[in-house]
Each structure stands twice: as C-alpha cells, then as structure tokens.
Design goal:
It holds the Pfam family DUF6371. By secondary structure, this protein is α+β, with helices and mostly antiparallel strands. It is about 30% helix and about 15% strand.
C-alpha cells in the first residue's frame, strides 16, 4: 500500500475550512494544505483555489521554489538542524546513499517589455496622482521610477506593482485599483460578496485575450500553468545601489513601501505582499543585511505576534532581523480593528511638502 502524503488538501467541512484565495481574492475559495501529523494548516499561500477556470491558483508544499527547495524539504532541514543531526548521522540513518540535490527550478517570468510598456500614462493612474498630491511632481516621478510602478487598463485608474527579483527578472505584477484617498477599492461581485479590486497581470492579460476571442500567447500559457508565480519581495532592484550597511525595512503592502520611502530615506523599503509570506525563501536576497519588520496594526496584536515568531525563526537561520512595535504601541484600538498600516498613519499626518519637491 502506498504511503500517504504528509501534506494534503483539507477536506471540505463547510465554509470555515476554506480561506480567501491570495491570487484572485475569492472569498473562502482556497482549500489549504494541512499537515496530517498535526492537522494544522500550512502557511496561507499553500492551497488550491476552487475557481479552476477563472483563477487556477495552486501552490503545493511539494513544489520546488526559487531557492531549489520545496516547503517539505525546508521543514525537513529545519527539523534536522533543530535536532543537531550531522551529515554523517543523516547518512547512516538509512540504507540509501544521499542523492544529489535537485537543481534549482527555473522561476516563472514575464517578458520585460510588459513592464516597460506600462511605465507611463500616469495622468490616469490614481496611485501616481496620490503620490503627486502628497509629495509633488518631482518626488512622485522619482518614486514611480524607483519602484517601476506601471499603469493598467484592467480597471479604471489601476496601477501595477511589478515584482522584479534581484536578477532583474519580472516575476509577476499585482494590479490594484485605488480610490482617490489611496484605499483599495472594494466592489460587489455577481454573487453578492464584497471583493477588493486586486488581481495579477497574467489574469488581466488572460481576460484581455478572451474578450478579443484570441488564443493566449505561448509564454502566457506557460506562465499560468507554472504554478507558483512570484515568490519574491517587491522593490528588490533597489539593492543594486543601496549600501550594504543601509538597513532594510519590510512591510506587507507595496503601497506602504513606496509611501514610506520619502518619510524614512535611511531605510531601503521593501514589501513582502502578505502577512504569511514572510519566510526565508523570499528573504534570501537580504542575507547579510540588517532587516527591520513593520507589521500592520491588527486586532489582539496578531500581525505583530506572527512576525515576531517568524523573526525568531529567521534569526536561527542566520538573518539579522528585528521587529518594530511602532504600530503595536502607537495605534488606537479602533485603528487596530481597521488593520491600518504605516502608510495609513503617515498619510493622515502629512501636512504638505516643500516647494523643492515639486521640481522635475
């Protein structure tokens, strides 16, 4: 009889057993993977969306990530390190000799010309207009170029937060529609549910070709079918010019990383994308650099606690990392219930910019 896999999709037991999909934003559409030994769910990005035709998101704990390891293999390595097993001890545990490590899987990428073509038309880009109104035309132009922020026609006024890795490869792009105050637009879907206007470039492109009744290009089909799309931090190209001794600040949302840059130029601001995305795989390019985490405000301090636990784990893996309690101590209870981030706090306190910031 075949040995059952340790990690399996959680059987359906009602809406409470499903999560929101990190790819399409569908409410309670993601079947998470669980550890059969503990019956606990894996990090939120591991699961399969049941909207197979409209989304098709599936990230397996057995899928080889950009660092050449799967979630399963990383857990095994951490367990071995925690138990102080030497390579010799590991070898003698079984009869089979160690097999060579699997070569790192080639990451899924998008053509660079997509990013280049999106850089412009900022007069209809609401996020670009927000930057201009708060920081002036000159500083806004610097930020748009620094973070390679694009404009999308998928929704009126939408922007693209491109995910470009440390090797300048375009790993993906998040499409977001903001309102005039910088909040993500929420819309009522056909089924009556309220969903945030966030999507992905490959999803927007697929919809574009479908509307025109045209076949998808081969590179787009390959990208969609590749599984895990963009396991990298937002803002990584900044590291090519940032001094090694300049600390790196990490927040959840790309918007927050962009808005914090003029306020705190002593940091290189990056975004991880979601609370559960903070892991060694995404932080690999930051080894050797000082890192400060700025979790969002949250009810009962959940975000601060989760990132504090993650930071402790990362420190054991050799990362130099700290966690800021700025919002944990400074946010009101109402703000914690709203889940505000650092950008929300800064925007409400901004009193304007000096005239020099408005120069090109």
């Amino acid at each position: 009889m075949a040995k059952p896999y340790r990690y399996q999709l959680r059987p359906y037991g009602g809406p409470a057993t499903r999560l929101d999909c990190p790819n399409c934003g569908g409410k309670r559409t993601l079947a998470p993977y669980i550890d059969r030994r503990t019956n606990e769910a894996l990090p939120a990005e591991y699961g399969r969306c049941n909207r197979e035709e409209k989304c098709g998101y599936h990230r397996s704990p057995y899928h080889i990530e950009a660092d050449g390891l799967s979630y399963k293999e990383r857990v095994h390595q951490e367990h071995r390190a925690a138990n102080h097993l030497s390579p010799v001890a590991t070898l003698t545990r079984g009869r089979n000799a160690l097999k060579p490590a699997a070569p790192a899987a080639k990451p899924s990428t998008l053509p660079a010309h997509l990013l280049e073509q999106s850089m412009g038309q900022y007069e209809r880009n609401r996020f670009a207009r927000l930057l201009q109104s708060h920081f002036g035309a000159g500083v806004a132009a610097e930020l748009l170029l620094r973070f390679q922020i694009g404009t999308s026609a998928y929704w009126n006024g939408a922007c693209v937060f491109w995910l470009v890795d440390e090797q300048q490869r375009v790993r993906g792009g998040q499409v977001v529609q903001f309102d005039e105050e910088g909040h993500t637009v929420k819309a009522v879907a056909a089924d009556g549910s309220v969903r945030r206007r966030t999507s992905w470039v490959h999803t927007a492109l697929s919809a574009h070709y479908q509307r025109k009744s045209q076949p998808l290009p081969g590179w787009l089909t390959d990208y969609i079918e590749a599984g895990s799309k963009s396991p990298c931090l937002f803002g990584l190209p900044q590291l090519t010019t940032a001094p090694l001794d300049m600390p790196v600040a990490i927040v959840e949302a790309p918007k927050t990383a962009v808005l914090c840059t003029p306020y705190f130029p002593g940091f290189t601001w990056l975004a991880v994308g979601a609370l559960s995305y903070l892991n060694d795989s995404r932080l690999t390019p930051l080894r050797g650099r000082g890192i400060v985490l700025f979790p969002d405000a949250s009810e009962n301090g959940r975000a601060y606690q989760e990132w504090s636990a993650a930071a402790e784990k990362l420190r054991r893996q050799g990362f130099k990392i700290e966690v800021s309690d700025l919002l944990e101590k400074g946010a009101t209870e109402e703000q914690k219930q709203q889940g505000i981030d650092l950008a929300d706090l800064l925007l409400t306190q901004w009193e304007g910019f000096p005239p020099s910031w408005n120069e090109h």
